[in-house]
Amino acid sequence: MGKIKAALAGVGNCASALIQGIQYYRKNLPKEDNLTTGLMHPKFGDYRVEDITFVAAFEVNRKKIGSDLSKAIFTEPNCAPKISDVPDMGVTVKAGPILDGVAPHMREPFHVYNKNRTKPVDVAAELKESGAEILVNYLPVGSEKGARFYAQQALDAGCGFVNCIPEFIASNDGWAKKFEDRKLPIAGDDIKSQVGATIVHRALVDLFLKRGVRVDESYQLNLGGDTDFLNMTVEERLHSKRISKTTAVASLIPYDVPTRIGPSDYVPHLKNKKICYIYLKGRKWGNIPLHIDLKLSVEDSPNSAGVVADVIRAVKIGLDRGVGGALTSISSYCFKYPPIKIPDGQASQWVEEYIQGKREH
After folding, report:
1. What is the DSSP secondary structure assignment for residue 189, as one 8-state letter?
2. Residues of 151-162 as b/e, b for ≥16 C-beta within 10 angstroms?
3. Nearest to 305, CA basis, from 95, 136, 109
4. Which residues of 176-212 are buried (b: 16+ CB within 10 A; e: fewer)?
5. Complete DSSP assignment for 100-138
6. CA distance linking residue 107 with residue 282, whole number of Å
7. CA 20 to 30 Å from 66, out of 37, 57, 167, 251?
């Protein structure tokens, strides 16, 4: 079926983990369609992970702009763990608009370019010239204007769109309608990690409910040391993130439960490692109390990359089939704030039906 041509808005740790991982599987993926470490779908429809190739990338970091994408992914402040060497990709990172993608306290850590010396490119024109079919949004949390700018550029260029951040685009009826009218698929919002805080929290809540336990209280506290967590030390940039993460868990519970979910602190020496503490209090048979305290430790960026690899292939299938608008199946399965919020088991079934052509979206 050929390659899947994707572009990146943001070349941070998540982009690094995704590109490195694709190169790793390109070298190590067995030809059989059996279970493979780290892959939810070794083959997604007609597409394998190694079919994903990157043809364009946009950044505001002056140290990354002008570099080959293979080098930019290892440029500071990136600190994603090393998965694989990446050969020259022949893709030069271009300057994207700054907009609200960088909080004031992040300008120096992000090495933001000087507007008097560097001008942003015409993103839609670059997407068209590169032949990109899908644009993946990896901007920092809180980039409300930036996310909508890149969504519009995808529309103007005729690209599908993957919104990995907690800005409500795929879940917004107006934006979904724009993509539907153009017969372009969109998936989002706010990527859910392979085995991360949200999916584990959801699994525990689902277990309580299915086993007849009344959920009384819950919280989820997250610590990390990369630029994502440094960016999120500004509470104003966290409004949509807290909504997204809280809704992902609370939507499973058919009654109100006191809860607190979201990023909690920046610990520099953790680098790309994320530490999550999950607490649940409930009542079981005879109103007897039950408590769960759980600690999860993961390398954050690779945890999302394996999911994005599935989303890109799902959007490509949508393009092949001429499907426009929000892809509800892959969005429900892979994102914290999808257009339709359903249990993970049901979402998984929807994805399999979508792959088989039994479900349009």
Report:
1. S
2. bebbbebebbbb
3. 136
4. bebbbebebbbbbbbbbbbebbbbbbbebbbebbeee
5. TSS-GGGTTTTTBPPTTT-----HHHHHHHHT--EEEE-
6. 44
7. 167
Q: What is the pLDDT of residue 28?
A: 85
188 touches 164 (CB < 8 A) = yes
User: Beta 47-48 vs 43-44: how paired, if at all?
Assistant: antiparallel
CA gap 83, 284 in Å, rounded: 44
Q: Is the bond preceding residue 77 a cis peptide, omega within 30 degrees?
A: yes
What is the tens place of the pLDDT at every residue in 195-233? 999 999 999 999 999 999 999 999 999 999 999 999 999
Nearest to 263 by CA among 138, 144, 140: 140
User: How far is C-alpha 237 from the geometric centre of its chain's CA atoms?
Assistant: 17
d(CA 254, CA 23): 43
With beta carbons less than 8 A apart as the criterion, state whether 186 and 163 touch.
yes
Identify the pLDDT of residue 164: 98
Report if pTM > 0.90: yes
The Cα–Cα gap between 3 and 312 comes to 12
The residue ranges of DSSP E strands in the chain, in sequence order, are 4-9, 43-44, 47-48, 52-59, 94-95, 134-137, 160-163, 185-187, 214-224, 259-266, 273-283, 289-299, 325-326
* Dist. CA 306–CA 313, nearest whole Å: 11
CA-wise closest residue to 130 among 55, 29, 64: 55
Q: Which residues of the chain have pLDDT under 70?
A: 1-2, 29-35
Whole-angstrom distance, CA of residue 153 vs CA of residue 272: 30
Who contacts 122 (Cβ-Cβ below 8 Å, separation ≥6)?
none
Q: What is the DSSP letter of 46?
A: T
**Bond into 189 cis (ω within 30):** yes
